[in-house]
């Protein structure tokens, strides 16, 4: 064998991890008991409590000399503090600015997304109850609950991050938690250009269109960057305009001076008190908005949004889940129909075509890179189809943004008048 290094087997590593998790669980129980016994549980902030927790850990090790003490004491105290006043194993992930999404599929399968790439990490919870305890700690300050009678919940953390949780019996392999982290410092247009998400010419066009009150729909898949682009375009709105935003979870970071932010509300545990995006949109029309920004079009509110675009609220914007501009138009038609609008397909197409000026398609490529793949002008209805004209298209092979066709005379005139 010589001096060959003997690596521990996978079984031994798993045993050590299980032993460490069990020790942390026992320490957590012991410290909670000590804090409650000393009357410190609800009286101290984290910084004040930490030295006490440090003393309790040392006290525990003195009482249990047989316990393996190979763990770093400072790291152990920090983890225990996360369990007591933070969000347990997730706290470091939430504090990491390079992580965009956190996905928990049961206690032993945790994934994070960095720079568009999803990867599994070694972090683990102790068991299902440990995951459930963290979920409940997240949602309790906002008055939400999760249990067998209410096994799904959507919520927003105090920092703006969005969470969705599903627990058994609906999730088969244990509690599942999805977290979309909120970035305090939103990406800028310069950052998108530097990252190759769009060209300088495309940015100049989009900035001019936003200023000139084009009605814009941003289409793309989950996590493709729709809200990021909507945030950037909203910065070009004249500060004298009154904007009303409507979102399921407030993510937009508009810096305009005159903004009214509205957020939907889910039903309570008895099924009452729900306020939908459509409710808020109907109310927004009574608030004298110059523009309406709908965070996401996903249901009956689409009909009201299109009508608003057609009745004087020029420059309104929204996002929608779709894989291409043509798919986005099909989804709009479907949602207008599901909203209970009883009319011919031809009229529905006409409403959409006259309401929208532009569709911007954003995509996340297999390598995690986010790009604007299409900018199209919505024109009119011909041969029972909504006509669109491609203005820019992304070539994935050359990674170039290619101008395709010129903007129509109608929109060029609108652009000139707006500028």
Automatic annotation (TrEMBL):
Single GO molecular function: ATP hydrolysis activity
Residue stretches making up the AAA+ ATPase domain: 212-382
Superkingdom per UniProt: Bacteria
Family annotation (CDD domains): VirB11-like_ATPase
Signal peptide: none
Family, as annotated: Belongs to the GSP E family.
Designated name of the protein: ATPase
Organism lineage: Bacteria, Pseudomonadati, Pseudomonadota, Gammaproteobacteria, Vibrionales
